[in-house]
Amino acid sequence: MKHSGGEGLNLWFQASRWQRLFLSVGHGLALTTVWLSALPMPTTLLLSAVLFVSIGFGWRKGRRPPLKQLRYNGEIWTLVSPGHQVREGRLLGSTWCSRWLILLHFRLSGGRFRAVPVWRDSLTDEDYRRLQVVLHWQADVS
Question: What is the pLDDT of residue 1?
Answer without folding.
Answer: 32
